[in-house]
Amino acid sequence: MALALSARIEEVPDGVSVSKKKVAKGTPLEIKIDNYSPEDILRQGVKDHSVESKGFQEEFETRRKKQDEGFMAIEQGLNTLKDMAQDIGEELNKQEQLVDEADSKIDKAGSDLKSTNSRLKESLTAVTVQVIDTLLSLPLSRLPDSATLSLSLSLWSCSLTP
Predict the structure, then answer these.
(1) pTM exceeds 0.70
(2) Count of domains observed in the chain
């Protein structure tokens, strides 16, 4: 069985045209790593390719070219993604400045609004106190009716509560 396998392996064309030695039955098979003699190496056609090995090499080169083209496409895609990421980063930096600016303006507007509300409350309290003082200084005959007085007092009490 080993001899049959060895014979089948030897029959496969590998591009080497060295004459094969026949092995007699029962003779141990020798494996030599360097089985070329100097005459074999100098002989014409020793390293010629067989049809199968040429086909294999052509297929290898074709697949290699396709793989290289695929790698080029991937490289171009990665370069495009890199450029897009850089553009997005620059845009985010610009937007961050605008957001910070808007945030500071909103904070200032909030502070201004609190200040204005505080001054308005002080003004309303002062006016309410003046109205009540005026009402209290009037003679009884000139006092407004009870509904108006009640409204004035409720406004005054609301303005005094924090």
Answers:
(1) no
(2) 1
